Amino acid sequence: MSRASTKEPLIHITRRSTIAPWKGIVIRIAAIVVAFLLCSMLAYFLIGAKPADFLINFFQGLFGINRMSANIRLWMLAKDTAILLLIALALTPAFRMKFWNIGAEGQVLISALAAAAVTYYFGDKLAKSEWLLLLLMLAASITAGIIWAVIPAIFKALWNSNETLFTLMMNYVATYFVAFCLVKWTPDSSSVLGILDHGHLPTLGNDYILILIFTLITTVFMFVYLNYSKPGYEISVVGESTRTARYIGINVKKVIIRTMILTGTICGLTGFLLVAALDHSVTATSVGGLGFTAIIVAWLAKFNPFVMILTSLLLAALNQGAGQITSSFSVSTALPDVMIGIILFFVIGCEFFIRYSIHFRKKAHTSVVQEKGDES
Amino acid sequence: MFKKLLALCLAVMMVAGLCVGLAGCKKADDFKIGVILLHDELSTYDNNFINAVKEAQKALKLSDDQVIIRKNIPESNKCYETAKELVAEGCKVIFADSFGHETYMIKAAKEFKDVQFCHATGTKAHTEKLDNYHNAFASIYEGRFLAGIAAGLKLKEMMTADPSVVAHIGYVGAYPYAEVVSGYTSFYLGVKEIVPEVTMDVQFTGSWYDEIEEKNAAKALIAKGCVLISQHADSMGAPSACEEAKVPNVSYNGATLPACENTFIVASRIDWAPYVEYICRQTMDGKPIDTDWTGTLGTGSVKLTDVNTKAAAADTQKIIDEYKAKLDNGTIHVFDTKKFTVEGKELTTYLADVDDMGDYKGETEVIKDGYFHESEYRSAPYFDINIDGITKLN
């Protein structure tokens, strides 16, 4: 046994001090490739799909089967990426401050409700001045988003309440508030509003162009705000240590509330776009879980707005491809959801290989140990 | 050498491509149908549509490539986007199954005029007046009426066996809107046909699928003294509560028999296969599709399961068949105004909200020739009257 305790272990792990950027990229790509292979194997064993068919169908989900469908699919992918990115951008400043806001779902939903409410009540009256109506909708959305984001922020700032639970609960309040309003707005109690006639943003040639423009501006703004502005610096300091922040004279309470107002504003903008540019309506599932997916987007990108473009694209693409798998192989949506889980697991798991390097015991040693039959 | 190899490879690839292309063109029929579903097979409602599409596919001998099903499509712009994708993939007819899909289907129908858009449970086709947008439903109130007959026979049997039994039954409904009101009223009128003094309590759950709520609602009704239960919601909640309490149950949609063999009497359901087959055939033949299509007992759209002889009263099947024949030839009508009263009086006139213009006001006279004309002026139900003998509990 004394021999075993001195022997070099089979695998040992050391922390990398630095890693060449290309190596990081190679590891990440390798992780995605391995994950895809595993998924196609899973598909083969569970539903009998040939691995090639599986991959072809997945990519057909992204690129369509012909030119017309490719055009639609790619625009949709861009739009889904943009919406996801917007919500992730809203979360980022708070996350950098270690304020774990998991209430983006509710913050966007309540903003969407506010925009729909303005159209519902004033749509006919302001039919002639559509621009005024749109501005009112935007103002209402942003106000609603700020209110929903700032309530937990005030509680956190003043009484140090747990923001994670608070923002999570606010999601449920928002969902049921939407359900309540829908019952009120539909006297036949069908709760289906359908497309509202007014308050549609102009399409500028393509339905999604405006969404992309808004998202691009927000991304650049957020990058500059976080990295080159005083409030952005204060966020980083508060995130590192509230004590240090206090010591150097930063008003932590003010930073928390100010940052959540920013989060609420971007969530408000997203809710407005959902109603004015896409759905022209609201339901309790209008946000459809994007508020939670955005958390992964922000984390994967380590809160860097430009890297988030890539991570939101990855998540949006996975969803679109998974939808195609469900359709092509007529399986329930549960299987593609499992696959998205596997792929994300690999993507997140590969960070381990980027941060640590693995050393295997030299071959000579191994053979000696094996001869002695001592594997412990 | 390398160039030659490359040229050879390219040539082989081109020939292969040509073969694939030609093989693609040779396909006998380029007809495709696209189906948009709110949820997936885990929902009994959507599963009913999936089964219908598969049945129609078999009847029409369509290949798997010709039927594209898109699941979990929310009632949002995603529905319109999915319709657009389906058009791009070559679908000639597109079908959606959820009420909230309607306005997005209309948006797509206005854009793609040479594709047919068909929508189940919708209300707007007859006022939108588009050539390529259609609504469909089934006269499920007739199925529920017949199921009510079976329930009435059971109730009568129970009352004969034990004179202390009070003719009071219960109904678990999803939402208080016309589709459900029409459903429970027709069921009640079926029971009343056999047991004229019957009264009924209705409990709403506020959801189409909530097993626990539905079970609790059924239990509450049983506790209140209801001796027979029926329901219009999509889970097994109410039937399983009935099986536990040994209270007879008339079911809806699902195959209830295996789980509730002592209490299940009969179930009614809408079979969408005839409609799916109809829209495919009309589109393939280039013929128009009805703006509003109402499936009936005759078209095979309204179906009753076999009667469970273990729970049902004697001769139930025979008597159901007699009533079915009478409904078929028009000698009786479910909503015969002589058979029910509203606030103690016979109904002679009623303006129903047939034109769904967002005003929620009735505009169409629906009582003629002594009965309420359900599902005639549009396919989706519009009977939303509170009649005497039925008490809404919430």
Reading off the top of the CATH hierarchy, the class of the largest domain in chain B is best stated as Alpha Beta
Distance between the termini of chain A: 9 Å
Strand residue content of chain A: under 5%
Quaternary:
heterodimer
Q: Using the coordinates shown, work out and report the CATH topology of the largest domain in chain B.
A: Rossmann fold
Treating each run of at least 4 consecutive H or I residues as one helix, how many helices of chain B? 11
Mean pLDDT of chain A: 91
Q: State the end-to-end CA separation of chain B.
A: 85 Å
Pairing-aware structural class of the strands and helices of chain A?
mainly alpha
The biggest beta sheet of chain A reads: 2 strands, antiparallel
Low-pLDDT sequence parts of chain B? 18-28
Q: What is the share of helical residues of chain A?
A: over 70%
Structural class by sheet pairing and helices of chain B: alpha/beta
Q: What count of domains describes the coordinates of chain B?
A: 2
Percent of residues of chain B in beta strands? 15-25%
What's this entry about, in short?
With 376 residues, chain A is an all-alpha fold. Chain A has 16 helices and two strands. The radius of gyration of chain A is 25 Å and the shape is globular.
Task: Explain how this protein is built.
The complex is a heterodimer of chains A (376) and B (394). Chain A is mainly α. Chain A has a domain at 80-307. Chain A has 16 helices and two strands. In chain A, strands 1-2 form a two-stranded antiparallel sheet. In chain A, helix 4 crosses helix 13 and helix 5 (104-122) packs across helix 12. The longest helix of chain A has 30 residues, at 67-96. The radius of gyration of chain A is 25 Å and the shape is globular. Chain B is of the alpha/beta class. Chain B folds into two domains: 33-139 and 273-295, Rossmann fold (3-Layer(aba) Sandwich); 140-269 and 306-336 and 382-392, Response regulator (Rossmann fold), CATH 3.40.50.2300. Helices cover 39% and strands 17% of the residues of chain B. Chain B contains eleven helices and 17 strands. In chain B, strands 12-10-9-8-6-7-17 form a seven-stranded mixed sheet, with helices on both faces. In chain B, strands 2-1-3-4-5-11 form a six-stranded parallel sheet, with helices on both faces. In chain B, strand 6, helix 7 (178-194) and strand 7 (199-204) form a beta-alpha-beta unit. Chain B is globular, with a radius of gyration of 24 Å. Residues 18-28 of chain B have low confidence and may be disordered. Chain A binds chain B through residues 64-66, 68-69, 71-73, 76, 186-192, 194-195, 278-281, 283, 285-286, 288, 323, 326-327, 330, 332-334, and chain B through 40-42, 64, 68-72, 74-77, 81, 84-85, 88-89, 99-100, 102-104, 106-107, 175-178, 353, 360, 384.
